[in-house]
Amino acid sequence: MLKTRVITAIVLLAVLLPVTLFAPIGGFGALIAFVVVFAAWEWARLLKLGGAGPIVYALVAALALVASTRAGIGRDAARPFFQAAAVFWVIAGPFVLMRKPVLAQGAWRAFLFLAGIVTFVACWHALVAARMQGVPFVLSLLLLVWLADIGAYFSGKAFGKHKLAPAISPGKTWEGAIGGWLLVMIVAAAAIFLHAFEPTLYSALLAQLGALRTVLALTLLVVFSVVGDLFESMLKRQAGVKDSSGLLPGHGGVLDRIDALLPVLPLAMLLLG
User: Fold this and answer.
1) Within 13 Å of residue 125, how many CA atoms lie on the same side as its CB?
2) CA atoms 56, 61, 62, 67: torsion sign
3) Are 178 and 155 in contact (CB under 8 A)?
């Protein structure tokens, strides 16, 4: 399993890094669209859309993404998508802390079908807008989520005692979440102090919000990275599956890799004004 996981990670990096670093915006956007469509397919599967439903849902997501570009790309043009996605994640947040989380049924299930399309469209626009700000910027945005996850893993292993959401993800602890937050803050402070690879998300937030509100903004993003992770865990648990799919050997599915990014990306764009 470890060997498979490492091989898959190397292949993914071999594709993602060159495109992120060197491809024009169009090439980067095409790759992210490819990822987003597969994530939409997995979302539909977790919501138990049977038969050809997941494929149809993925095609609808692709068409919605193409249609959304008619309004333009970039942070200002995509603001309505970011706002709609942010509303969804604010609504979804409390569900991950419920003792007995309930998979949406009826009207709620229909809401999740629609919310998924909005979420994936907003995710695509946010990443493309971030890439338009520069490679360091988009990497710093991704790094925030990765650091929160890495810090949470090691802090949870070392100090974790108090369960964060035992009904959904028994392995996650408050100590781990705090450790992830601390690691983000340390790296962000170092990047700002050293003026490393600017412009980054951290330097942009500082320039627009000032020091105190930058700390609050980064804290909010870390919180919602956890919300995204737990929300997907909730969907998987209630769907009775371990992974969102088997598309990425050793890693599960696409959603398993980007779940924490889904709320963070549009929220980060909104925080930048």
Assistant:
1) 34
2) positive
3) yes
Distances (CA, A) of 33 to 17, 58, 59, 123, 204: 16, 11, 11, 9, 26
Give the separation between CA 149 and CA 238, rounded to whole angstroms: 23
For the stretch 250-255, contacts whose Cβ atoms lie closer than 8 Å and that sit 24 or more positions apart, written own/partner, are 250/1, 250/2, 250/4, 250/5, 250/6, 250/7, 250/8, 250/9, 251/5, 251/8, 251/9, 253/38, 253/39, 253/42, 254/35, 254/38, 254/39, 254/42, 255/39, 255/42, 255/43, 255/46
Question: What is the separation of C-alpha 60 from the centre of its chain, rounded to a whole number of angstroms?
Answer: 20
Tell me the Cα Rg of the chain.
18
- Crossing angle of helices 107-133 and 25-46, rounded to 10°: 160
Task: Give the Cα separation of 77 and 72 in Å (integer).
Answer: 5
Q: How does strand 163-165 pair with strand 169-173?
A: antiparallel
- Is the four-CA dihedral 20, 146, 273, 196 of positive or negative sign? negative
Assess contact for 162 and 175: CB atoms under 8 A: yes
Q: Which helix (H) or strand (E) holds 83?
A: helix 79-92
CA distance 115 to 52: 20
Taking only the tens place, the pLDDT of each residue in 151-202 is 999 999 999 888 988 878 888 899 999 999 999 999 999 999 999 898 999 9
Q: Is the bond leading into 199 cis (omega within 30 degrees of zero)?
A: yes
pTM above 0.90, yes or no: yes
Q: For 232-269, what is each residue's pLDDT tens digit? A: 988 888 888 888 888 888 778 999 999 999 999 999 99
Give the side-chain half-sphere CA count within 13 A for 94: 3
Query: Phi/psi of residue 7, each to 5°?
Result: -60, -45
Residue-range domain boundaries for the chain: 2-271
